[in-house]
């Protein structure tokens, strides 16, 4: 297939210029090799180092699929099973109100253990990362029960805390949990007999030729292998002024959850291997069975994303897509694959950015669109308005909160006409009905602008929670 690379480059360049991002680096790889790769912008605040496909970035939560794949490889070798109870590896683990043996590794990997958004990851960052301070981090330091520097401290909080309400029985409710993947990191250590860091290097990075990828806690190993080609970390301070530093988030128990550093070129290799069911450059580098365990036949193929093991899965223009985003201080990333369907080959692609708390999803869509033969500007928002109002808005009105870091509040009101509105951490939004209990959140001033999706969870005649994208906020009033 012929691709209009010139048009792609022009479109991405225009998109980058309007984004306000310091840099974005992209890469697309397929059976024919690298189709397109380029860096836009600069890796440093002084604009002396242009970003390129070999620039090392953090990938944050994109690390999760690497941890899940490690577990899947170990399952093919009989060293663990996703149906193992968590207490096999951590006898002290429990979720209050749930029988100890009922939570499995699969529940952790699919975010269905019943753990709501809680604060240990944010506590771990503020208590273990030197030389970085903000209003929110000072608040978190005051509320942290300890340094959250060991997995046992995370497990103790989950097991004994009276500060959160579980989301129900294991398997009942999906809510994204960094804590679940922290635990899985240490399960790999036990099952493999070597640290996850070594397992990733020997079993995934080296076989794929990912020579500029590493799992490390403080960035020191990434700096050493980068040879100077590593990004600074950009963010906005409390006065909304852009700054950059070289202080990587240090969150020791969450290593396999968020601590991989890599490049656009390396990550596209990883995703293209998954798209080809473990094959890379004519070699079976990962067992096909492990890839199937990760994202394969047991998971549905629908337009609405379904979280498998470390990756969301959905359909797009008749093809299966698996993808994940990531975000930390100075890190906003998106990566994914288009699965080999037996007719068309498999492709991997990624868009990495060095500014925290933004989204590179639309850059990723452009990369998908090139391979899918769609206009580059095609949107892949999957929640579509149905043109009617929700019939019983009083079921949904109320206040919902998340305690993942500083408290996050999502309040829902209705007007006399039955139109629903949300106030999300002080930002007013429209709730546009998309069928079932699904809504597209829209900007009040620009109703055509989609901001995210919310799905209300009903019980006993009213919503007991709302899932904002992948995180469940529980009703408080």
TrEMBL record:
InterPro entries: AmpC-like, Beta-lactam-related, Beta-lactam/transpept-like
Domain annotation Beta-lactamase-related: ranges: 9-354
Gene3D superfamilies registered for this protein in UniProt: DD-peptidase/beta-lactamase superfamily
SUPFAM superfamilies cross-referenced by the UniProt entry: beta-lactamase/transpeptidase-like (SSF56601)
PANTHER family assigned to the protein according to its UniProt record, in alphabetical order: BETA-LACTAMASE-RELATED DOMAIN-CONTAINING PROTEIN, D-ALANYL-D-ALANINE-CARBOXYPEPTIDASE/ENDOPEPTIDASE AMPH
Name of this protein: Beta-lactamase family protein
Organism of provenance: Hornefia butyriciproducens
């Amino acid at each position: 297939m012929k691709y209009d690379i010139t048009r792609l480059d022009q479109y991405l360049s225009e998109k980058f210029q309007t984004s306000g991002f310091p840099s974005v680096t992209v890469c697309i790889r397929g059976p024919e090799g690298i189709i397109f790769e380029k860096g836009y912008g600069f890796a440093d605040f002084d604009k002396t180092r242009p970003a390129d496909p070999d620039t090392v970035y953090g990938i944050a939560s994109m690390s999760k699929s690497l941890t899940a794949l490690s577990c899947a490889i170990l399952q093919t070798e009989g060293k663990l099973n996703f149906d193992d109870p968590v207490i096999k590896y951590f006898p002290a683990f429990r979720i209050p109100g749930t029988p100890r043996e009922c939570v499995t590794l699969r529940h952790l990997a699919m975010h269905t253990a019943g753990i709501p958004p809680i604060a240990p990851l944010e506590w771990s960052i503020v208590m273990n990362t030197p030389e970085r301070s903000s209003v929110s981090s000072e608040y978190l330091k005051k509320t942290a029960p300890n340094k959250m520097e060991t997995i046992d401290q995370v497990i103790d909080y989950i097991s004994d805390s009276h500060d959160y309400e579980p989301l129900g029985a294991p398997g009942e409710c999906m809510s994204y949990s960094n804590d679940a993947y922290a635990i899985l990191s240490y399960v790999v250590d036990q099952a493999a007999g070597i640290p996850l860091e070594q397992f990733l290097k020997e079993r995934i990075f080296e076989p794929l030729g990912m020579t500029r990828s590493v799992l490390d806690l403080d960035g020191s190993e990434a700096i050493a292998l980068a040879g100077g080609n590593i990004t600074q970390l950009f963010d906005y301070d409390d006065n909304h002024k852009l700054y950059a530093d070289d202080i990587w988030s240090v969150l020791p128990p969450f290593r396999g959850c968020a601590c991989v550093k890599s490049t656009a070129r390396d990550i596209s290799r990883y995703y293209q291997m998954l798209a080809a069911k473990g094959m890379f450059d004519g070699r079976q580098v990962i067992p096909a069975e492990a890839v199937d365990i990760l994202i394969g036949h047991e998971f549905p193929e629908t337009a609405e994303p379904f979280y498998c093991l470390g990756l969301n899965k959905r359909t797009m223009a008749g093809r299966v897509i698996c993808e994940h985003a990531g975000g930390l201080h100075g890190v906003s990333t998106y990566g994914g694959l288009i699965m080999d369907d037996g007719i068309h080959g498999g492709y991997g692609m990624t868009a990495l950015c060095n500014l925290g708390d933004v989204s590179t999803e639309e850059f990723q869509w452009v990369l998908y669109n090139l391979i899918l033969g769609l206009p580059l500007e095609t949107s892949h928002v999957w929640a579509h308005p149905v043109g009617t109002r929700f019939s019983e808005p009083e079921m949904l009105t109320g206040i919902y909160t998340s305690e993942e870091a500083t408290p996050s509040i999502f309040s829902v009101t209705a007007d006399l006409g039955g139109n629903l509105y949300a106030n999300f951490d002080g930002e007013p939004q429209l709730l546009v009905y998309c069928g079932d209990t699904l809504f597209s959140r829209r900007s009040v001033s620009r109703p055509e602008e989609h901001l995210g999706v919310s799905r209300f969870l009903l019980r006993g005649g009213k919503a007991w929670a709302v899932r904002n994208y992948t995180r469940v906020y529980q009703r408080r009033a």
